[in-house]
Amino acid sequence: MDFKSDKVHVLEHPLLQHKVSMLRDKRTGVKDFRQIVSEIAGLMCYEATRSLPLEEVEIETPICMAKTKVLSGKTLAIVPILRAGLGMVDGILNLIPSAKVGHIGLYRDPDTLQPVEYYCKMPNDISDREVIVLDPMLATGGSASAAIQFMKNYECRSIKLMSIIAAPEGIERVSADHPDVEIYCAQVDQGLDEHGYIVPGLGDAGDRIFGTK
Ligand code: PRP
Ligand code: URA
User: Fold this and answer.
1) CB within 6 Å of ligand 2 — which residues?
2) Antiparallel, parallel or unpaired: β 103-108 and 115-121
3) Contact yes or no for 1/179 (Cβ under 8 A)
4) Nearest CA, atom 2, ligand 2
5) Which tens digit of pLDDT belongs to each residue from 167-195?
6) For ligand 1, is residue 140 a contact (CB within 6 Å)?
7) Which of 98, 112, 136, 166 has a CA-to-CA distance to 190 between 20 and 30 Å?
8) Atom 5 in ligand 2: which residue has the minimum CA distance?
9) Could you identify the atom of ligand 1 that is nearest to the CA of residue 138?
């Protein structure tokens, strides 16, 4: 599927496709589902962090002095949208343990499909960091768009969105509301059903990560 914006990155790596298929399977239980969400987040993080700034340092190897590069200054904050975004946090922290974590609590009202805020806690230096908003499901895009607006209200200048499965409607909504934001997803599905669920999707990501249904 082609999107007009060069801000949309569909990461179709074979490992991602394989793992997303495992998530989609309704027979996949809570423990495996949670583990695979975390693994996918780690794999996607590799692409989504390509632009992190580097600085040159000098170190001594066992052989000689060498100029080499390390991540520069305050780099990254990841911001999961509660609840389901929490499932993506560990996979990224395994790779970037120094990343700080902000939390946004949003749920989608089942009747109106509008996002309702119930919690927000950010690191003090959030505006100095590159931000990646995490949510495995980008459906109508209402939750992601609201979360990105929160981050803009915190004066964050570099914001990315990482979702595992996206509906075209969600990509279009976020691209229209926030044309500056890069969207990373593993797969784009057909669309939404009458309840706003992604088709074929994987069901309710929060329920499947936390075993609440
Ligand atoms: C899900 C999902 C997203 C949102 C996506 O959360 O994790 O946050 O729906 O839908 P949207 O793109 O139409 O806004 P949900 O509201 O089910 O809350 P939960 O994570 O607490 O289960
Ligand atoms: N939220 C989910 O968890 N799954 C969907 O398909 C849509 C929204």
Assistant:
1) 84, 137, 139, 196-198, 201, 204-206
2) antiparallel
3) no
4) 204
5) 999 999 999 999 999 999 999 999 999 99
6) yes
7) 112
8) 197
9) 12
